[in-house]
Design a protein that fits this description.
The chain has 368 residues and is of the alpha+beta class. It folds into 2 domains: 112 residues, 2-Layer Sandwich (60s Ribosomal Protein L30, Chain: A); 173 residues, Phosphoribosyl-aminoimidazole Synthetase, Chain A, domain 2 (Alpha-Beta Complex), CATH 3.90.650.10. It has 9 helices and 14 strands. Strands 9-11-8-12-10-13-14 form a 7-stranded mixed sheet. It has a 5-stranded mixed sheet with strand order 1-2-7-5-6, covered by helices on one side. Helix 3 runs parallel beside helix 4.
């Protein structure tokens, strides 16, 4: 994670694979690409091919956003690094993002956040006033999420070795459901729910960078979502199937909604049907996507949650989520099916269907 330039002649093309490439004369061997941080297929290949292989254990191999630990699987544990550029953007900054992102990863395990740790890598010359402001933003977000930041670490690196500031946050939470959430719990007929519109965070970052001659009235959706998930858990408990009616939770960050759904279909061995018209996309986000050729379903979000619930609990969960601060646009967007296992089908407004595949490569680098 440095900003140093590659030596001349040591360039890597977007099509270069993670594996392959020789080590003999005239070859540069394997290289990590920006696309490996995208949250899409290349990212998945990197995680499975390097990290899961090196650190193999049953907890890691689940590849959940937060690991469920003993005793009795009641403790959730997660960590997340934040390298976004710019550090400030409409709707948030790296401080708010670092806390909200970790709280949301815990929330995907239905875990109430108990404590956070924050580690800062600071570039020499970084303005202390900016550091204080970003820490104040992180502290305010932690208060909103009702979780203390109890420990941390600080490193200062030489000028040019970091883009100002990197933050890594680690979280511990208490899992509030007795059953195990995840792809293995999903059943054909389950409802797929989305807590709100997609693409806002990525477009807000893109606009803040000023790389294109356009302005977009879009604010990042960056927000802590434990309150939203807590409401969904309560609604599921009151529904006919009890709390086990809540099957799966995931926040669609890098790789967007498409990646979450494609991973779920693959891991569950089931198909998913999604209605394109049911997915909220703001006019501003849609306009930017039309202009630049992006698919809003693959763009990153930092304040949305995908929920899969039993069909008999779907209406109650949607209604409960809509009453929360960050779930007012929640709606059912599709369902799980035994047909076309491992595939996600998007039904378009024109009556056609197309397959949603995980994106390959990096659309927008450094968005979280």
């Amino acid at each position: 994670m440095t900003s140093r330039r590659r030596p001349a002649g040591d360039r890597v093309t977007a099509g270069a694979p993670l594996t392959g490439g020789g080590s003999g004369p005239g070859t540069s061997g394997e290289r990590v690409l920006l696309g490996h941080g995208s949250g899409g297929k290349l990212y998945r290949d990197l995680v499975k091919g390097v990290f899961v292989k090196a650190f193999a254990n049953p907890v890691l191999e689940r590849l959940d956003d937060a690991a469920a630990l003993s005793p009795q699987g009641r403790i959730a544990f997660t960590t997340d690094s934040h390298v976004v550029q710019p550090l400030h953007f409409p709707g948030g900054d790296i401080g708010r993002l670092s806390v909200a992102g970790t709280v949301n990863d815990l929330a995907t395990a239905a875990a109430r956040p108990l404590a956070l740790a924050a580690a800062f890598i600071i570039e020499e010359g970084f303005a202390l006033a900016d550091l204080r402001d970003l820490c104040a933003s992180a502290a305010a977000t932690a208060r909103e999420a009702d979780v203390p930041i109890v420990t941390g670490d600080t490193k200062v690196v030489e000028r040019g070795a970091a883009d100002g500031l990197f933050i890594t946050t680690t979280g511990v939470g208490e899992i509030v459901v007795a059953h195990e959430l995840g792809a293995a719990a999903v059943r054909a007929g389950d409802a797929v729910i989305l807590s709100g519109g997609v693409g806002d965070h990525a477009v807000a970052i893109l606009a803040a960078r000023g790389q294109f001659a356009f302005s977009a009235d879009v604010r990042s959706d960056c927000a802590p979502l434990w309150g939203l998930v807590e409401a969904a858990v309560g609604a599921a408990r009151r529904a006919g199937g009890g709390e086990e009616a809540l099957r799966f939770l995931r926040d669609p960050t890098r790789g967007g909604l498409t990646t979450v759904l494609a991973e779920l279909a693959e891991e569950a061995g089931l198909g998913i049907e999604i209605e394109e018209d049911a997915i909220p996309v703001s006019p501003a986000v849609r306009s930017v996507c039309d202009l630049l050729g992006y698919d809003p379903l693959t763009l990153a979000n930092e304040g949305k949650m995908v929920l899969v619930v039993a069909p008999e609990a779907a209406d109650a969960v949607v209604a409960a989520v809509q009453k929360t601060q960050y779930g007012r646009e929640a709606r059912r967007i599709g369902f799980v099916t035994a047909a076309h296992p491992g595939r996600v089908a998007l039904r378009t407004p024109f009556g056609t269907r197309r397959v949603l595949d995980m994106p390959v490569g990096e659309l927008l680098p450094r968005i979280c």
